[in-house]
Amino acid sequence: MHIALIEEWFSLHQGGMERVKNLAIALARSGQRVDVFCLALTSAPAEHSDFGTGLSNLRVHMLPLRELMGEGGTLPAAVAEELGGPTAFPTELIQEWLWPFPAGNESVLERATARLSGLLKDCGAEVVQISDAVCWFGPGIREKTGLPCSVLLQSYPISAAEYLHFSEFLNLAGKETLDGPALHKELGRCLNSYDAIWAVSRYFAGRGVSELGLEPEKIKIHYAGVWLDEFAAEAAPGFREELIRSAFGGDRPEHRIVLFLGRLEATKGAHHLLSAFPLVLESFPQALLIIAGKSFMYQQYSDILEYLATNMLIDDRVRLIGHVQGEYRKNVYACADVFVNPLVVAESAGIVMVEAMASACPVVAPALGYHDEIITSRRGLLYPAYDTRAMADAICTLLADQQRCSEMGQSGRAFVEAELTWEHQAGRAVQLFSEMRSLL
């Protein structure tokens, strides 16, 4: 099968692009032909890239922004750094690519869909999947190409309140837009025009049905996956001791490690975990909290975390170790006794809990969003959202029972191996694409 995937930005810092990259690689390794189309801030196209895999049946087409949109404008430096490109960009960028609402954008939509439709025909694609951030292109592509199209519902703001926020933002940018509820209604209409709607969790699918009026019979669940060989059930010999020594000083073999790993921004809730940690230390004074991650556009948040740790007099038990990747990240996960995902805002889906389970680490998380779809009592503990004491109690429960921690870790890794590897998700994707084609 020849599959085309359309994403917004080529930025490996973004969860959406990371998901598309991994799915494309998994599909190609399973024998499918895959073309990925996305926007880039480069001045010339970089076609036939393959994400560095060497796979001849995988091509990445980074479409220059000016080719699709026109000239003019300046991208804020912080955003440009996050996206990994230069600062020049069209004035319509935010309004008409990342959020290309139909009202007042007909010319941009027509130009972009015509260009993308021509590329899809040229590459010989048989099915198309479009990410929700650029979902407005789908109806035009479907009409121009006749190809079966699915949309991936993963992160787009789907509540009327969220749409109202973006409407106000666009108005501040000098753009006339529909009001929040009208945009909300328009999104539902757009998504229902697709042949299939993939949702990254049952939670997000349910929100789409209740808030956008999505047609339930079109919805398919497709979770993100992990590459199992990037994670290990045990850390490399001596890594745990060296991590504690380098982060906290001295040898502390009896200490237990509580881990947070993720982007450092308020919605991820690291500050909420810090608030709970003094309660953990009351029962387990030997506990250590390691916070791994980076503030890509919110550097002040890291400073706030350090201030909080100092102000609560727990700075000798807390360390921010920065962004981790590769073998180092694998070992950090593997040496943790408990992984905590203290979200304060429900997410459509997420990957860090799956990564922790792949590392045979039990998970503590709030009963929020999609968490109860993957965290059962055999793999971790859920606590009432926003309840600091309940979070601390859940962490202490696991720290007090190493045997239970070990059993949960083994159960979590077995679950990931059976259902949440990218190889498994590629097989599921091929099945869903085949079903979509058979209905046309």
Could you walk me through the main structural features you see in this protein, from its secondary elements to its overall organization?
- The protein has 440 residues and is of the alpha/beta class.
- A 7-stranded parallel beta sheet has the order 3-2-1-4-5-6-7, with helices on both faces.
- Mean pLDDT is 84; it is low at 69-104 and 163-177.
- The chain starts with a strand and ends with a helix.
- It has 2 domains: 2-225 and 422-438, Rossmann fold, CATH 3.40.50.2000; 228-419, 3-Layer(aba) Sandwich (Rossmann fold), CATH 3.40.50.2000.
- It is built from 18 helices and 13 strands.
- Helix 11 (270-283) packs parallel to helix 12.
- The chain is elongated and about 65 Å long.
- Residues 253-413 form the Glycosyl transferase family domain.
- Pfam families: Glycos_transf_1.
- This is Glycosyl transferase family 1 domain-containing protein.
- One of its GO terms (molecular function) is hexosyltransferase activity.
Break the fold down into its secondary structure elements and pairings.
Elements: E1 2-9, H1 15-29, E2 33-40, E3 58-64, H2 65-69, H3 77-83, H4 93-98, H5 106-123, E4 127-131, H6 138-145, E5 149-153, H7 160-172, H8 180-192, E6 196-199, H9 202-212, E7 219-221, H10 239-248, E8 256-261, H11 270-283, E9 287-292, H12 299-311, E10 318-322, H13 326-335, E11 338-340, H14 352-358, E12 363-366, H15 371-374, E13 380-383, H16 388-399, H17 402-419, H18 422-438
Parallel strand pairs: 1-2, 1-4, 2-3, 4-5, 5-6, 6-7, 8-9, 8-11, 9-10, 11-12, 12-13
GO molecular function, one term: hexosyltransferase activity
InterPro entries: Glyco_trans_1 (IPR001296), Glycosyltransferase_grp1 (IPR050194)
Domain Glycosyl transferase family: 253-413
